[in-house]
Amino acid sequence: MTTVPSGSSADPWPIRPLLAGLVDDASLVQPRMVAPSIDAVVARYLSARDGAYGGMIGHLVCPVSRLPALVTELARSAPSRPVDLSLVVDTGLGAVPKALSTVFSRSSLLTPRTVETAAPPDVDAVWLERVSEFVPDEVTPVVEPRRPLGGTAEEIDAWLDAVQRVAEHGCTPKLRCGGPRQSDVPSVAEVERFLQVTVGAGRGFTAIGLREAVRPMPENETDRGRHGVLNLLLAVARELGTGGAGTVADALRETDGQALVAEAEALSGRTVDTVRGLFTCCGIDPDPMSISEFATLGLL
């Protein structure tokens, strides 16, 4: 995995493989009334990608409905190299071929990396095959079976069965780790079971809705807390049996940043490669969580 982006106009610092290309800018998939403008997102993304910590920057995530505006703004901005794009289906699968045609025709501006879509709760092989038909071989299909908010045990089991079907079909499952409601945050037990399915299938996953590098302390007894990026990376290592001592749930619950850093630094190179082969990237809105958090922890 390349840790320093090529062709940058800046002089980016080397990024350790555990964090290389990890952070996607997902601010454009926020609701329109709170999402920043296209020009602000493009300026911020290009500045971050070509800056000192550019090796940590992954894809720019864009809904299909906002693709024309993104293309216009990138043409105006004239990036030094094409932007790696994650295209999110928000107007139906039928819009994907035209959107991809637009992206491929603007190869100096964009390189399609993934096509992401939500899945119905009863997702089956027929539906997944339809997704695969729309996505070319060089682009990764990412599918998010929606977790039932406040679901019963049976509903959670059904969600995980859907995640299993997605992984077995050759698509990459996506885990939503946060949102505007507290119920949008999955419990530690739900994340642990998700990792059992995806790591066990060997397919890997992506995540969205992460806001912090390290899990913050719960605000009160009823607060289920938010998940940290570093926690999730180390939880994958423990699920593989090659991480630190303790359980996967312990890694997800840990709020001591320095303890997590010590465990991360003890991972072997082979374990790091395997972990990042499974946890490929995480979509965040960069405003709440600055990459400087990782620098403060001593990881950059």
Walk me through what this model shows.
- With about 300 residues, this protein is of the alpha/beta class.
- It has helices at about 40-50, 65-75, 95-105, 125-135, 155-170, 190-200, 230-240, 250-255, 255-265, 270-280, 290-295; strands at about 25, 55-65, 85-90, 110-120, 140-145, 170-175, 205-210, 280-285.
- The protein has an eight-stranded parallel beta barrel with strand order 1-2-3-4-5-6-7-8, surrounded by seven helices.
- α1 crosses α2 (about 65-75), α5 packs parallel to α6 and α7 packs across α10 (about 270-280).
- The longest helix has 16 residues, at about 155-170.
- The relative contact order is 0.13.
Features:
300 residues, alpha/beta, 8-stranded parallel β-barrel, 11 helices, 38% helix
Give the total of beta strands: 8
Q: What is the CA-CA span between the terminal residues?
A: 17 Å
**Residue share in helix:** 25-40%
Low-confidence stretches: 1-10
Could you report the average pLDDT, rounded to the nearest whole number?
90
Q: Specify Rg, calculated over alpha carbons.
A: 18 Å
Give the CA-based shape. Answer: globular
- Tally of separate helices: 11
